[in-house]
Amino acid sequence: MSEMRFFVDPVRCIGCKACMQGCSECATHRGKSMIHLEYIERGTSTQTAPMVCMHCDLPTCAAVCPADAIKRTEDGIVQSSQAPRCIGCSNCVNACPFGVPRYYPEIDQMLKCDMCYDRTSLGKKPMCASVCPSEALFYGTLEEFQSRRQGTPSNTFQFGAQTITTKVFLVLPAGDVGLNMDVLSHMDARFEPDAFDHLDPFAHLEPLPMGEHL
Amino acid sequence: MLKPSGAALPPRHDPDPVMVPVMDVTLDRRGLIAGVVFSLLLTLAVYLGSQRFHGFDGALAGYCFATVFALFGVVYRYAVWLQRPATRVYWKRGWELFWQPGQRLRNTLLFFKMGWEKMLEQRFIRKRSRDRWLAHQLIFWGCVIAILITFPLTFGWLRFESDFTHPSNYLVVLFGQRLEFFTFPARGVIGWLFMHGLNIAAVLCLAGISLAVGRRVKDEAEISTQRFDNDIMPLVLLFAVSVTGMMLTVSNMFLEGKFYYWITTTHAVTVMLWLLYLPFGKFFHIFQRIANVGVWFYKAAGANGPQAECARCGEAYTSAMQREDLKAILPDLGFDYRNNEQAVDNWQNLCPGCRRKLMTLNQFRVTGKEFM
Amino acid sequence: MARPPLSREEFLQEFGPTLHYAPPGGFRTVDDDAALVDTHCCFCGQQCGIRLKVKDNAVVGFEPRYEFPFNKGKLCPKGIKRYLQGSHPDRLLHPMRRTPDGYERVTWDEALSETVSKIREIQAKYGKDSFAMLSGVSLTNEKSYLVGKFARVALQTANLDYNGRLCMVSAGAGNKKAYGIDRASNAWDDIPRAKVIFAIGTNIAECFPITTDYIWRARDAGARLIYADPRMVPMARTADLFLPLRIGSDSALLMGMLHVIIRDGLTDEAFIQAHTVGFDDVRAAVSHATPEWAAEITGVPAEKIELAARWYGEAETGFILHARGLEHQTKGVENVMSCANLALATGKIGREGCGHSTITGQGNGQGGREHGHKCDQLPGNRDITNPEHRRYICDVWGLPEEELPGKGLTAQEILNAIHAGEIKGLLSICFNPLVSLPDANFNREALNKLEHYSVIDFFLSETAEHADIVLPGSLHEEDEGTSTSGEGRVIKINAPVTPPGEARRDWEILLDIAQRLGRGRYFQYGSTQEIFNELRLASRGGTADYSGITWEKVVNNQGVFWPCPQVTERGNTTMHIEELDSVHPGTPRLFEGGQFYFPDGRARFNVVKWRESAEVVDDEYPVWFTTGRVVSQYLSGTQTRRIGPLVDQFPHPKLELHPRLARQLGIQTDDWVTVTSRRGQVTIQANVVNTIRPDTVFMAYHWGGRQSANLLTQRALDPISKIPEFKVSTCQVRLATPEEIVEGENARRLSAVTEKNLPAGYGLNARRQELRR
């Protein structure tokens, strides 16, 4: 059987947070979720951004850790911080290009997604990809993915001068290989009131009537 | 108030490594020097503390050698560890902030407070899990008691002698000085405690080990991530040390000294293995944990100074000091997140939240759909 | 006078809602010995398979149930955290009697004696029908059947109705009128085979989340998604065509689409000829309904309506999905029939990849509406006014036919009758009308007028606070039985734990009351399976025929789709349950070969004429008001408002309004706003989002008290289905005054209390922040 892989397809995400709730149910997480899910900007869209650890081939988080607390195992999984070592400095939180690690002040430790190592190392699916209703998070072989899904899974990301390759795949439109992580086109005056009028799905509607109660 | 440091750290400069003849291994020069210096200092302390080996117990020489070697190993590894780019930042900044003028007394008090909370009470472990904290505390205090008793004994700093005036009493000899005021009956409470101090330590350790092993056997997450050399080996070593140590007492008290020689040898071997494992294995986290106190200073100072704002959303998300320090070490580590675009000239100027959102935003951008 | 005896603060302290976070015994890293029990989620009509972790007679966690074919392990947040409703600090553990200053603990004997004597007293004084019963469809099929029989045979009242009245009755009535049967036309497996999916008035992502995967599978195979909704809900965001229609204008949109389909010759004439009746009348009725006409009413551009019609008409296969958005209207049945007209005119029904289904909102919304706890219905979806049907059921029950009551009042009508003093006593189970029925102020007045009210519940819901006698019943995981999912699949609910304290299983309580009312001989059941077996016999020959289904078959086949009738001569005539056969494999897809459930086998076209909703905007109330759900809450929230992590996702209702409207009113996100309708007013915080029509505001309805959306909605009912018009009202919106803000903040403070003794290191505030983002 070919290797099991993890695919992320944020466009499908319905923002239900089943992944977060499922993640927090994992026996080792004690009610905490390692996956992130947040609205991009609720004012303009219901689009949410799900974020699991991408499991970089050369993890920035591990490199900036002063305490050697983050290890990448041979199977390509970047493990969460080792409890005895993590000194809670948040270097990894600030350096990860994907914004994945989270610092928990109450336990003075960073915890991050380890692709449910307790499950995946036994051949089970990770919790988030098990429960995700829309398969925005999908765990299976590449063949399985290709047999039922469109799009090209890609695991190469360009951050300015830095290329990062990951174990986890992002689904891109058919034919696209590699994603340039652009910031500038997503900077458009986010906090001005008219900024998103051009994105208004209701822009065609008549102006509202003016009245005593309006 | 503790203030962050704005100045850039001095550039790194790595001394040439030292070739070990025949073995085709290189050693770090700083680590080597520090290790040798500390080992020599300890040897000197043993020499002086035992009144030029007058009070040195030859039977314990093996333990003493192993301890000196373990010290060399720990210091060597610590020195190498401190040269890692990220560690070096915290080490340098930590001392810089600690010695900040006008803060030194307060910092020293804080140092002890933090030392208590983080190193001895280990409050952070209790927050993680009570069971784990209990196991850890039992093992920790077991080891501390054992070290406090055995190290002075093997170094020849401490011994017990019969009190001439009351033959049933013992008295403490420290650095060759007979502490006449500190005599105690051999069969009294203090005597019992001294006699069985190591057994008490062993019992604490064994209790802690059984809790830890119980967890490692049953906990799914631990089972999946633990490695024998890193996670099981330390428990096995501690177990062996504790059990063989207690067997000495058993042999002495109940078996009329049967197997005593055999047991002492085994015990010596296990203790030496433990000492030699100290610098390389999991136990090194004991020494790394001290950095936690430095990090506390770093964070406290950072919070009092300018904050780094996200280049996209404008939210402050960390201290400016930490962001700049991070950006400074990333090239050393082989990462280059710089960008030609002016507005965001470095990916590292974004908050974690925006970085997460940008993956979705960029995926959406390439799909070319109308509404997000 | 059934007034609540305690202040809000006192209720909060004593009965919650308490936000429950940690499983019994705290988070355990080590969960050895926990048994795994296969069962289902109780929090919507999809009835997802789930595996519960059980230890020491308590549910302590969940595992995905990958083997269950519907969801294959997938779950929404409600399913994941559903286990936290067990071992809950608010759980009612013993019977209680209301006193002027609170509730006192009584024995079961005292509680039931009082209930029974009140029933007798009220019925003797005012007549049998003056004592009503309200029920709900979170109950299993067995309990639904039992409640129907109990009310008619033990209580002997005609006035029994259920909260499905607020849910699927429009679809039920519309389906029966068009197809002669009330069930989703297909198993969901047909959705991925459709080439076009038309979703109207349904927020699939939040109310039926697992269905999103079926739709995406269709889209991956090249299907187009058309989405009609006044809000750009999560699934609409990615749709190929979004039709942002004005609330209450659904039938105009559907008529416009049918007009285009007929005009452009996209009808399936052969299918219409062979399998339907009445197309000519419908053709005539939509002849004037041009896309431009529809655009005028709906606010959707005419070209988009044309495009939608062409996409649906031209596609080889197509699936229509709808839910409360178009059903919760005074035109609910008409809207459903309009959808059926589309499906029938294009022949997109009864074959692979083609169908027309409602999305059931409630757990057992499908099964619960088949077995006789609707006011006009007998088991097997039989009609209580049909003499033949009455006779058959009386035969099964061994009841003299004259003792079987006739048709009673519907849910809202029962409350109206209570308000009018015609109904004096009430027994309710599994229903929280004070939160879920429209015009909450009116219903509160009604409840206060009751002479006696007994409630069977597991938590003290807002409605139960008015009860004289509180009888602690059972949770979903404390009783076994079957339920029927939205796609018509009968599934098995298992009971990993027993009711805690003195709480009892619901059916045992009903049996006890029946016994005390002297009707025990009709209720000789030793287990729920015996109830199911009687249900099989009672449903035999009805449209909802379960007679060929056994519990074993349900378990072995991972569910059975009804109709599952008898296939043998003996099975069709016997009155002995053990002689029923179970050969029939079930019916995943209805209407194959164009066979519909009318005597002539033909489907019916139904003429729908455009008319306005009961309330339309005017100068005084110029903004449309609509309600709906959020993904983390379920119905009136009696269960889900007590589960901490779910509440944290969406802790309080917010008013969604478009930036254009907001600017006109000077409102910004998180401003406190007051919404006023002709019925009442609510002060909540605003959420300014451009995902809603500028002329419409939206509020989720899961909260009670002063946070209840149903303070604003109206009691206008659909003339056929009697469903209230929750989805269309009008209102004023303005910034709240300082006094109103204080009140709003007060209501928020009193909405829930956080459980004490959370585990060390849980980091509650950070967890809340993460879930809210």
UniProtKB/TrEMBL annotation, chain A:
Molecular-function GO terms, alphabetical: 4 iron, 4 sulfur cluster binding; metal ion binding
Name of this protein: 4Fe-4S ferredoxin-type domain-containing protein
4Fe-4S ferredoxin-type domain span: 4-33, 44-75, 76-106
Gene3D superfamilies, alphabetized: 3.30.70.20
Entry keyword Plastid: no
Short name of one Pfam family: Fer4_11
Keywords for the protein's UniProt record, in alphabetical order: 4Fe-4S, Iron, Iron-sulfur, Metal-binding
Tree of life domain: Bacteria
Transmembrane segments: none
Organism: Deinococcus phoenicis
Automatic annotation (TrEMBL), chain C:
Gene3D superfamilies noted in UniProt: 2.40.40.20, 3.40.50.740, ADC-like domains (2.20.25.90), Dimethylsulfoxide Reductase, domain 2 (3.40.228.10)
Region of interest (Disordered), ranges: 359-382
Entries under InterPro entries matching the protein: Asp_de-COase-like_dom_sf (IPR009010), MoPterin_dinucl-bd_dom (IPR006657), Mopterin_OxRdtase (IPR006656), Mopterin_OxRdtase_4Fe-4S_dom (IPR006963), Prok_molybdopt-oxidoreductase (IPR050123)
4Fe-4S in keyword set: yes
GO annotation, biological process: respiratory electron transport chain
One Gene Ontology term, aspect cellular component: membrane
Protein's name according to its UniProt entry: 4Fe-4S Mo/W bis-MGD-type domain-containing protein
Species of the source: Deinococcus phoenicis
